[in-house]
Amino acid sequence: MKRPQWPSWMPVDPYIVLLLATVGVAALLPARGVAADGVSWLATASVAFLFFLYGARLSTREALDGLRHWRLHLTILGCTFVLFPLLGLACQVLVPVLLDDALYRGLLFLTLVPSTIQSSIAFTSVARGNVPAAICAGSFSSLVGIVLTPLLVALLLGGEIGGGGGFSTDAVLRIVLQLLVPFLAGQLLRRWIGAVVLRHRRLLSLVDRGAILLVVYSAFSQGMVRGVWGQVSVVRLLELIGVEAVLLAVVLAVTWYGSKALRFDRGDRVAIQFAGSTKSLAAGLPMASVLFGAEASLAVLPLMLFHQMQLMVAAVVARRRERDPAPTDARPHYASTAPR
């Protein structure tokens, strides 16, 4: 029997439907008490396992080779941790006209989280860009973000975080134990399990998506139990979506035309655009749960919306880039490493 396929005419990615369904389940059947503790533990364990698989997949030689392309990686890190936060700070002028304080904190938080790994690689591959650079850039961004994101949150949001969260040595330690330590463990064991992980790419995809669904359910359940969703109106949500659409459009334009001004070739420009304009749910959600405590559900809402928007928009942009004429300086850097 053939596995059922998602209808090609459906404009919505099935994973977006799953995310919306998860939010709906959390609204109708939020986890409480012992069940909430169990879901939270399972979400934490699944994210740790996800980063373990990331570490096992990334070739150490590939990472070291990628470090030689330091201009590209500094550019991507600059987009992720400088350009995005500056745009997030600029959005403060929209309070209280388009955003309230809680949604603005979530919007600013999304500008501080690392870049994606899976999505940036996939879209770079579709657009015939520099895939090894996208792999290294996403991995470097995640590693740097484990330390830099909490520091930026402390600097820009430290006095505004409540609900039992906030920046502290303990918060950073929990993030390091959940994300960095599993990644390094995967790197250490890559010699023995790396080939198995690479042969079972679907496993990484399932863990990636499953971990996000668990964290979303846990965060939104807490929000329902604590009654924070009564603070958000439909109008505010629509205004937030509009603000994020403009934010994404600006970053996509700056990464593409800015990298051209910096004289990167086409393959590198593609990697910079997709790695520099995307934000990671897999890294951002567990950080938010640690840093924001009871307010995590509202803090992650802008990140969730932005993540889905970036997937839909990046898919269209990648297909358009795929139709670009073959560059005269093309290098075979995307043929062998494109994800299947």
Radius of gyration: 19 Å
Distance between the termini: 22 Å
- Major β-sheet profile: none
| Global mean pLDDT | 80
Number of helices: 13
Percent in strands = under 5%
Helix content, binned percent: over 70%
Quickly give the structural class: mainly alpha
Low-confidence stretches: 329-340
Write the layout of secondary structure elements.
Layout lengths: L13 H15 L4 H25 L2 H8 L2 H21 L10 H10 L7 H9 L4 H27 L11 H31 L1 H26 L7 H28 L4 H12 L3 H12 L3 H27 L18
Helix pairs in contact: 1-9, 2-8, 2-9, 3-7, 4-7, 4-10, 4-11, 5-13, 6-7, 6-11, 6-13, 7-8, 7-11, 8-12, 9-12, 9-13, 10-11, 10-13, 12-13
Q: How is this structure best described in words?
A:
By secondary structure, the chain is an all-alpha fold. The protein is built from 13 helices and no strands. The longest helix is centred in the middle third of the chain and has 31 residues, at 169-199. The two termini are 22 Å apart.
Task: Briefly characterize the structure.
The protein has 340 residues and is mainly alpha-helical. The protein contains 13 helices and no strands.
